[in-house]
Amino acid sequence: MDKNMEIISQLMVTITQTNEWFRICHEDVQIQRATLDLQTVMERVAALIPEELMDELWDALGNLEQAQETAAILYGIRVADAIRDVAARPTDLTRYIIDRAKTGAQGGTKRNG
What we know:
Distance between the termini: 55 Å
Number of helices: 5
């Protein structure tokens, strides 16, 4: 097994087991709203399907959540790396912004007006 992959795999598990991660999950309004919505729907579904299938559904949802957490963490690491890289080259960033302004490019954003 690739040792770097194993290290990253263990790191991902560790990140999602910190007090800060739990605090975010328990205090974030959007997460709380989505959790309540999911629980409401799952209660309705549980009345319609066998318990074994319900367990499989919960397992599948847990696996999806874990995969999304991993992707989000990896994306966050890439974004942090990009910020660090560009912050070390402010002149390049200024030049990039000026060049984009000259060509009228908006970087995928639309301006009102």
